[in-house]
Amino acid sequence: MAINxxxxxxxxxxxxxDLALNYIYPTLESVGVLIPGVTINPEVSVEVGAASAFxxxxxxxxxxxxxxxxxxxxxxxxxxxxxxxxxxxLQVDELIPHAGAHAISVDLVGDVLVKAAIKSANAWGKxxxxxxxxxxxxxxxxxxxKSTIYSNIIDTIEAFDTANPERSTGANYIIxxxxxxxxxxxxxxxxxxxxxxxxxxxxxxxxxxxxxVLLSTQLPTIVHGDLSNYSALSGVEFVVGAADAFIAPTGxxxxxxxxxxxxxxxxxxxxxxxxxxxxxxxxxxxRAATATPQA
Length: 295
Description:
- This protein is an alpha+beta fold and 295 residues long.
- The protein has four helices and 19 strands.
- Strands 7-18-13-8-11-10-9 form a seven-stranded mixed beta sheet, with helices on both faces. The protein has a three-stranded antiparallel beta sheet with strand order 3-4-5, with no helix packed on it. Strands 6-16-15 form a three-stranded antiparallel beta sheet, covered by helices on one side.
- The longest helix is centred in the middle third of the chain and has 30 residues, at 106-135.
- The two termini are 44 Å apart.
């Protein structure tokens, strides 16, 4: 958080830490379906001010068979570090007209910062979903109905498990479109979040087939033009995945207010650097009516 790099407060009424803790970070954490430990891998290290993040990818261990008591041979090739460049960013540069940086109220700044944070988080979330689809594994079929949606989800989970024969941890979430959620709510197998009350996080709407269900209003807005690996895409219904499959680190989140050099007013500026990576396409499936890979 960097509203003013030279001080902890803009004025006596505008404390940078208060704005960050009470307005910005809660908003960034509550918007979208990219949630650490649920849909994205939390085991990623980002150094402060760094231009990259990294994680260690574990391939399948090598198991040998032979005489008991034989010499052990260490396999060092099964684990390796993978770096993710944080070379993309989302920026906001909004004007609050006819206001002074030393006279503006925290409520007004907070309102603009929250809107900026929501807009940034939504943009980041959609970019993440695009990366999921672009590098995930597609399953195609006729459009689901209220009678077939549950079986289609179970079939996709089965395809997921078949593609991961040596992984004990299966899929843990499903991201659905509003249309798919509507079909699920008409099925007996869907457990709404009203059953479990307030213990569920934002974005989570229930459970089905042993998976946490999250609603994404952005998922159906993704078209084939957003993807580089598919020449045709239509009728996306849901994404089934494991939390370890998708990496979504962000760098230092910069927010600040400054006097405008062109207008009579104050500018609210923000920049969030980010990077994405699909660690394993076999642990990220999506179902669509059409998903044609690029030739």
